[in-house]
Amino acid sequence: MGGVAALARELGHQVEGSDQAVYPPMSTQLETLGISLSQGYLPSNISVDCDEVVVGNALSRGNPAVEAVLDAGRRYTSGAQWLSEQVLPGRDTLAVAGTHGKTTTTTILAYLLQAAGREPGFLIGGVAEDFGVSARLGRSIAVVAGKALPPSAPAGHLPPAGEGEDVSILSDRPLFVVEADEYDTAFFDKRSKFVHYRPLVAILNNLEFDHADIFPDLAAIQRQFHHLVRTVPGRGRLIVNGEDEHLAEVLAMGCWTPVERFGFDPSLEWSARLVQQDGSAFAVLHRGREVATVEWSLLGRHNVLNGLAALAAAHAVGVDPAQVAPALAGFHSVKRRMEVIGQAQGITIYDDFAHHPTAIHTTLEGLRAKVGDARIVVAMEPRSNSMRLGAHSDALAPSLDIADAVVFLARPELPWDAAKVIDAVRGDAQAVADADALLARLGEVARAGDHVVFMSNGGFDGAPRRFLAQLS
Q: What is the chain's alpha carbon radius of gyration, rounded to the nearest angstrom?
């Protein structure tokens, strides 16, 4: 929603907004853009002369602001619908979908297109450090050179691996890269947000069960992903994780678009070969031929796949991987994705937007590959709706196996027994009831040489920077 507000401001609109808790880095971006922010959902926070209200998907019926908008008969829409009507027309959209890695992969793709001189617009679910913003309109581009496109696949046909090889998508339209979320659109539109975007190119990064507050099972999420697949035109491209069985099941429901698969398997159209085991360097292979080498600051096999998917998507719109891969040496990812916020007393402190056990495990796995035998201490807050509902409680302890110590923030309102997770954690683990107790415990546990990782997809009561200040 912060990115949507930024785009509206760039289009020349006067923009104001409110949220229950507005915190950095998004609050800083919005204030810099001259967007006024209000805390809480008071009807009085909506100006009487407001022309349109864009409603975020976190709000439901019964919310005071929502009820005031409905009672007054105001014009309202969702963020996804506003984007599809006000920004995406006239642009070729590249959408990045998946349970994990959406924000990072979207940022990498925008960065690669920028390195190729394509000046893309983008909407990212975080502040991209290399751009300094989470969204921008971008500008028009020149016609992309490439070969003729193959005809669209017949209805119901599943394109085999490699169909449409070495063909870029011709267009003189500007490009727009969007993080394509499967969460529902708004209280009045229960479709996944990504069905609004109608992409020309879609990355399907991975698929696991998540969002237990709105999806009853994995099959329900797969149906939404197939709705996205249905919207990608025959002249477009699907860039799909070829090692994800759940995505293979989605494509088997029907596919009308050329598919290029990626992964570590060298038989796939796009594959990666690790040069460094921590993922900081890898070779890129296209149809078995090495076409580029990436050396960058990101860690972990999951980020190798994120980078590989972005390179494949960029190639689909005419960008040569060999030309832009060297630029990734200067890539700085997104704030709150293993962001090093500082060092004090020999302790390195990270802020990470963790939301799912798989993401927790792969992130810690990448850090372990980098730091070797150094101690890893995790401060964990189960903040996402699925986490708070306990949908991932059984998988949490195994996801933390790599950590040497864990301090778990189990707020009193947590509806499940955190003690079971604590007892099952391999390393030293303790639960605390609030952020103050967590910081006190970290002060006792952390020592010189440690890597302390704060993991939460919320504000965490400012704990990461409070801990840095505490050490300093």
A: 22
Are 1 and 79 a contacting pair, CB within 8 Å? yes
State the alpha helices, DSSP H only, in 25-157: 26-32, 64-72, 79-86, 102-115
Which residues, 6 or more positions from 321, have their beta carbon under 8 angstroms from its beta carbon? Answer: 284, 286, 291, 292, 311, 314, 315
pLDDT, averaged per 10 consecutive residues of the chain (472 residues), comes to: 94 93 80 90 94 95 96 97 96 95 95 96 91 88 37 40 54 92 93 96 91 80 96 97 97 97 97 94 97 94 95 97 97 82 94 82 87 93 63 74 89 75 82 92 95 88 93 92
Q: What pLDDT shows up at residue 24?
A: 77
CA 183 to chain centre: 12
pTM: 0.79
Token readout for 136 is: 């921008």
H helices present in 93-167, as ranges: 102-115
**What is the per-residue DSSP string for 392-459?**
THHHHHHHTTT-SEEEEE--TT-SS-HHHHHHH-SSEEEEESSHHHHHHHHHHH--TT-EEEEE-SS-
Q: Which residue has the tokens 């994120």?
A: 306
Sequence-distant (6+) residues with CB within 8 A of 211 are: 182, 183, 221, 385, 386
3-state helix, strand, coil in the chain (%, to 5): 35, 20, 45
Count of alpha carbons within 13 Å of 60, Cβ hemisphere only?
5
Residues 6+ apart with CB under 8 A from 82: 4, 8, 52, 54
User: Residue 427 to residues 325, 417, 450: CA-CA distances in angstroms?
Assistant: 38, 19, 14
pLDDT, position 394: 73
